[in-house]
């Protein structure tokens, strides 16, 4: 019936014909977005065509005032995706939520996601999910810090559940062995190569001293003494000095001691030099399954960047909600009433 009506309209009136075609296209787009289980890079091409530009401008503006934001946004996305999937559940405030768990207390970047959301609610109300905004913000943060541009599929819905009890069983601990990390990544559909590549996120960002305290012990005088021989001596002593006993729990150090604010392949060079901050970093060069990849990326940044794009897309596609599995939140910090 639609084709017959369109044919008659096109014969009778060119303008009505054009309007009818536009209506059919818009209807199809709405139907696809609400029923398809697949994400699409042009998901918002009709409903909010400037979404990527608006998010990027928000991240860029905020990063100009706080250069630590790229690392925070990238870490925020990882903590979201590995727990309930990439559904924005880590953004929810309140007792008993993912965000309230001690493992997430040091997360940052929430205000950037919320700022982008407020802007989009004015221009494209009830259209763009917080989950998609977070993915775009983390993607853009990497590029702003010097990393590669990545085209990401969109169309995620915001999750309807956020529970602190789900955090610890799904979170990578900085003291994990390679086998422990492989098991966790595999449970998310991520490969060993993804593990090595995504670990490269530690080329930016900060870490609190307690995140690597297992690599030191306190002597009788209250000084920290390195006990992990895989750490390069001068680097270990520098960390011990910065994180001396009695230091504030808010003390942080750069994940990458060489190019802290730049997304590059320096992380892999650091590993080979014995300057991996976490135990979970250092194990990548002590195992034959991953050492070769580390060496390749340390020598060839383009190879790392090429791999980063594919691995980032896979990470940002973990456990996504689409269709009726979620909602479009009005505010990223609370579920719709």
From TrEMBL:
Cite the binding residues for heme b: 202
Q: Which PROSITE patterns match?
A: PEROXIDASE_1, PEROXIDASE_4
Which residue pairs form cystines in this protein? 48-124, 81-86, 130-332, 209-243
Catalysed transformations (reactions):
2 a phenolic donor + H2O2 = 2 a phenolic radical donor + 2 H2O
Outline the extent of the Plant heme peroxidase family profile domain. 38-336
Among InterPro entries, the record links this protein to:
Haem_peroxidase, Haem_peroxidase_sf, Peroxidase_pln, Peroxidases_heam-ligand_BS, Secretory_peroxidase
Which residues take part in binding Ca(2+) 1? 80, 83, 85, 87, 89, 98
Which residue positions does UniProt flag as site: Transition state stabilizer? 75
Leader sequence residues: 1-23
Where can this protein be found?
A: Secreted
A cellular component term (GO) from this record?
extracellular region
Q: What is its EC number?
A: 1.11.1.7
Q: Give one Pfam family.
A: peroxidase
Keywords, comma-separated and alphabetical = Calcium, Disulfide bond, Heme, Hydrogen peroxide, Iron, Metal-binding, Oxidoreductase, Peroxidase, Pyrrolidone carboxylic acid, Secreted, Signal
Q: Where does Ca(2+) 2 bind?
A: 203, 256, 259, 264
Which CDD domains does the record cross-reference, listed alphabetically?
secretory_peroxidase
Record-annotated active site: 79 (proton acceptor)
Family statement? Belongs to the peroxidase family. Ascorbate peroxidase subfamily. Belongs to the peroxidase family. Classical plant (class III) peroxidase subfamily.
Biological function: Removal of H(2)O(2), oxidation of toxic reductants, biosynthesis and degradation of lignin, suberization, auxin catabolism, response to environmental stresses such as wounding, pathogen attack and oxidative stress. These functions might be dependent on each isozyme/isoform in each plant tissue.
Q: What is this protein called?
A: Peroxidase
Species of origin? Ananas comosus (Pineapple)
Gene that this sequence comes from: LOC109725670
């Amino acid at each position: 019936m639609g084709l017959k009506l369109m044919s008659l309209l096109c014969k009778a009136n060119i303008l009505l014909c054009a309007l009818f075609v536009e209506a059919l296209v818009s209807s199809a787009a709405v139907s696809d977005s609400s029923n398809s289980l697949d994400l699409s890079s042009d998901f918002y091409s009709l409903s909010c065509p400037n979404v990527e530009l608006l998010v990027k401008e928000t991240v860029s503006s905020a990063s100009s005032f706080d250069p630590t934001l790229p690392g925070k946004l990238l870490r925020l996305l990882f903590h979201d995706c590995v727990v309930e999937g990439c559904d924005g559940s880590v953004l929810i405030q309140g007792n008993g939520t993912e965000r309230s768990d001690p493992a997430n207390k040091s997360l940052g970047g929430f205000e950037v996601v919320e700022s982008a959301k407020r802007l989009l609610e004015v221009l494209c109300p009830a259209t763009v999910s917080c989950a998609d905004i977070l993915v775009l913000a983390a993607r853009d943060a990497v590029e702003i810090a010097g990393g590669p541009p990545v085209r990401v599929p969109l169309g995620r819905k915001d999750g309807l559940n956020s529970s602190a009890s789900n955090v610890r069983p799904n979170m990578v601990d900085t003291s994990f062995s390679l086998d422990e990390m492989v098991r966790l990544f595999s449970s998310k559909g991520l490969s060993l190569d993804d593990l090595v590549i995504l670990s490269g996120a530690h080329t930016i960002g900060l870490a609190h001293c307690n995140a690597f305290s297992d690599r030191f012990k306190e002597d009788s005088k209250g000084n920290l003494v390195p006990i992990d021989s895989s750490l390069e001596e001068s680097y270990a002593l520098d960390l011990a000095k910065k994180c001396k006993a009695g230091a504030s729990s808010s003390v942080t150090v750069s994940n990458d001691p060489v190019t802290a604010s730049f997304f590059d392949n320096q992380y892999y060079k650091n590993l080979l030099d014995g300057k991996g901050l976490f135990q979970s970093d250092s194990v990548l060069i002590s195992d034959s399954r991953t050492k070769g990849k580390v060496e390749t990326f340390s020598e060839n940044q383009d190879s790392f960047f090429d791999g980063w794009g594919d691995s980032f897309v896979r990470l940002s596609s973990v456990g996504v909600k689409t269709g009726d599995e979620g909602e479009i939140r009005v505010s990223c910090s609370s579920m719709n009433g």
